[in-house]
Amino acid sequence: MSKSVNKVVLAYSGGLDTSVILRWLQDTYQCEVVTFTADLGQGEDIEPAREKARMMGIKEENIYIDDLREEFVRDFVFPMFRANTLYEGTYLLGTSIARPLISKRQIEIAELTGADAVSHGATGKGNDQVRFELGYYALAPHIKIIAPWREWDLSSRTKLIEYAEKHQIPIAKDKRGEAPFSVDANLLHSSSEGKVLEDPMTEAPEYVYQRTIAPEDAPDKASLIDVGFEAGDPVSIDGVKMSPATLLTKLNELGHDNGIGRLDLVENRFVGMKNRGVYETPGGTIMHAAHRAMESLTLDRGMAHLKDELMPRYAELIYNGFWFSPERLMLQAAIDHSQQHVTGTVRLKLYKGNTTVVGREAEKSLYSADYVTFEEGDSDYDHKDAAGFIRLNALRLRLNKMLLG
Fold first, then answer.
1. 101 and 231 assigned to the same domain
2. 257 noted as active-site residue
3. CA distances from 344 to 163, 226, 234, 238, 363 (A)
4. Model confidence over 52-74: pLDDT tens digits?
């Protein structure tokens, strides 16, 4: 890429990697840097990033620290959960769904500040570089992208620390040693990868887990909760209305206390390699179970089954970084249409790592006791109708046997 860059918006955490990137951008491109730090509910104080950016010469008007928790849950997490989204059958996509929001806000800041480039700290081996950059290009087709990990020669943690020391970039004491694993976190989940987790046959040490207690350490008494839904989105817990981020925070607390939401998996990265990760999604795991239960009562069979067929494709689009693609938007429209009557209450029992649905009700329920009862009901269902139904469905089976043997 051309070295001609006037101003770049950097996704900046204030940590070692992005602080080194900040200085590297200044030195390599001789450009003005705008820092953007997002609060997505990662559970740490992000204000120190402001002071560190100032210390490294960033002008006050070029420092952006945004609380995006409500937008994250309302406009990204909830739409994804309406589809009951699971990647490869297990992963609730906690990291994947955060990237399009960060990309979106970076592009907005680039437009506000007149920046002609954006930059991120994702490595050249992972999925995040793809997710960030597909988002950038979808929203700003001509934006310049700087991916330092694909350009520089700082290929190890030792070299990063040496660079930081040479340029007088402060390094926290706990960052000097080799981290036992890497962590990404937001309000939906935390993911841990690398180092002590690289052998997929070795059980993850208990200290890896941050969002949940061990199921065997959870209380011996179950927690019973009611989750209220409106048009496919959770809106209340035990009858108390909450904002999206507040509700997910509360579900996270309940999940944490009951040891819910741990996942140890090996997944297929978009870039081609397999990766072992330990993920924790306490509130999301509860929300996923509750939403499926709500749909079981309110969705027509054909609609529900079609959703289940579309879901893997939808999940793959999000995992691979195509949140802003026309096909994801098309699928979202179909998913959202299906949620018109997904309104009601689901009762769940939380106990030692398990989320069990024990009740559900909805004003527009498609469940009819009169039709399903083994006793005499008031429905117009005639048992004799089943004979013709079965013979018609058996016709091709009978012909197959009669004609082909």
1. no
2. no
3. 56, 10, 9, 12, 7
4. 999 999 999 999 999 999 999 99
Print burial letters for 88-118: b (CB count within 10 Å at least 16), e (below 16). Answer: eeebbbbbbbbbbbbbbbbbbbbeebebbbb
Would you call 17 a catalytic residue per the annotation? Answer: yes
Q: Which of 175, 181, 105, 173 is nearest to 140 (CA)?
A: 105
Spatial CA neighbour of 235 closest among 342, 331, 311:
342
Catalytic residue among 17, 23, 96, 276: 17
Per cent of the chain over pLDDT 90 is 87
Question: Cα 108 to chain center, whole Å?
Answer: 21
Is the Cβ–Cβ distance between 366 and 299 less than 8 Å? yes
Work out how many domains the chain is built from and give that number: 3
Residues 22, 11: Cα–Cα separation, whole Å: 10
Phi and psi at residue 297, in whole multiples of 5°?
Answer: -90, -25
In the annotation, is 385 catalytic? no
Q: Is residue 78 part of a domain?
A: no
Catalytically annotated residue among 23, 50, 99, 211: 99
The answer on 130 and 111 residing in a single domain is yes
The single residue of 74, 116, 182, 347 carrying the catalytic annotation is 182
pLDDT digits (tens, 9 = 90+) for 207-236: 999 999 999 999 999 999 999 999 999 999
Backbone torsions φ then ψ of 9, nearest 5 degrees: -100, 120
Identify whether residues 137 and 219 lie together within a single domain: no
User: Nearest CA to 281 among 350, 190, 356, 218?
Assistant: 190
Same domain, 287 and 333: yes
Which domain covers residue 383, as residue numbers? Answer: 378-404
Residue 199 a catalytic site member: no
The pTM of the whole model exceeds 0.70: yes
Same domain for 163 and 276? no
Read off the pLDDT of residues 141-158 as tens digits, 9 standing for 90 and up: 999 999 999 999 998 888
Q: Quick check: is 273 in a domain? A: yes
Contact indicator for 1, 141 with CB cutoff of 8 Å: no
The domain that contains 117 carries what CATH number? 3.40.50.620
Q: Is residue 369 part of a domain?
A: no
Which of 130, 159, 178 delimits the end of a domain? 178
Per-residue pLDDT, 96: 98
Catalytic residue, candidates 13, 69, 128, 131: 128
- Together in a domain, 155 and 252: no
Q: Is residue 280 part of a domain?
A: yes
Do residues 223 and 133 both lie within one domain? no
